[in-house]
Amino acid sequence: MSSEANLLPLIVEPETLAEHLDEPTLLIIDVPLKAESYDQGHVPGAVFLDHRRLMRGAGEVPCREPTPEQLSALFSELGLTRDTHVVAYDDEGGGWAGRLLWTLELMGHGRYSYLNGGIHAWREADQPVSTDPHTPSPSEYEAELLHPEALIDRLELQERLGEKGFAVWDARSPAEYRGEKGQNQRLGHIPGAVNLEWTQAMDRERGLRIRDYAELITELEALGLTPDMEVATYCQSHHRSGFTWLVGKALGFEKIRGYAGSWREWGNRDDTPIEK
């Protein structure tokens, strides 16, 4: 790993990133929920990414991970190389940025960071913003799913429910978890899953940064999730759980995996077990 890649930790604060904006191997990607967020002001040098490109977009489960062909096209456009260190952020506290970093993990590209709190924290820290669009220099990136263990599919998840040392983290709202709302054929949650809504891991007083680690670990342990366990996390489309996957990583959950199909897949089948 190049020295530049070691300059930034997994979770990087605005002040630290500001010191490294000129690093030639840095690729800063703004992947906002609302596209206009980028136009209204972004980290200088950041490139825009349409979050829809982080999902397959077709088939019965359009929120699944993109194909290697789709990923190759996307990351070639963004100018990714083996030496690139990616810094991702968004405008909503880490959902789409987390999904992007999970995608890089899936591809075996381990050089990445999350700008803690995204554009909200950046602005609150009085860092400079740019309204000039930044066009990346394309590369020829050939994506492969080198770390498939970052992903868990429906069949494996179903097989392993109730297994000792394996747990499921539902990042949706309590109402979705309880089966009181949702837009699927069937409502509820994956049997045995515990619920900590994704926004509960954000600190609203500190620009949507990740909350105090010790407090979060305590809350997750109270739910039965400990860093030594293998944890699968999901939501409706693996967007909100992109952030809970990232939080797990930051807290030292080394075996945290994303269920890309999420409730979009699970709740629209008649052969998946459901609890309310």
Task: Describe the model.
The protein has 11 helices and 11 strands. By secondary structure, it is α/β, with parallel strands linked by helices. The longest helix has 12 residues, at 95-106. It is globular and about 50 Å long. The termini are far apart. It has 2 domains: 3-147, Rhodanese-like domain (Oxidized Rhodanese, domain 1); 152-266, Oxidized Rhodanese, domain 1 (3-Layer(aba) Sandwich), CATH 3.40.250.10. Strands 1-5-4-2-3 form a 5-stranded parallel β-sheet. Strands 7-6-10-11 form a 4-stranded parallel β-sheet, covered by helices on one side. It has a two-stranded antiparallel ribbon with strand order 8-9. Helices cover 30% and strands 14% of the residues.
Short description:
The chain has 276 residues and is α/β, with parallel strands linked by helices. Helices cover 30% and strands 14% of the residues. The protein folds into two domains: 3-147, Rhodanese-like domain (Oxidized Rhodanese, domain 1, 3-Layer(aba) Sandwich); 152-266, Rhodanese-like domain (Oxidized Rhodanese, domain 1, 3-Layer(aba) Sandwich).
Number of DSSP strand runs: 11
Average pLDDT works out at 96
Helix content: 25-40%
Structural class: alpha/beta
Low-confidence stretches: 1-5
Biggest sheet: strands side by side, in what order?
Answer: 1-5-4-2-3
CATH superfamily of the largest domain: Rhodanese-like domain
In terms of DSSP E residues, the strand content is: 5-15%
The rounded distance between the terminal residues' Cα atoms is: 46 Å
Query: Under the CATH scheme, which architecture of the largest domain would be assigned?
Result: 3-Layer(aba) Sandwich
Predict the CATH topology of the largest domain. Oxidized Rhodanese, domain 1
Please report the first level of CATH classification, the CATH class of the largest domain: Alpha Beta
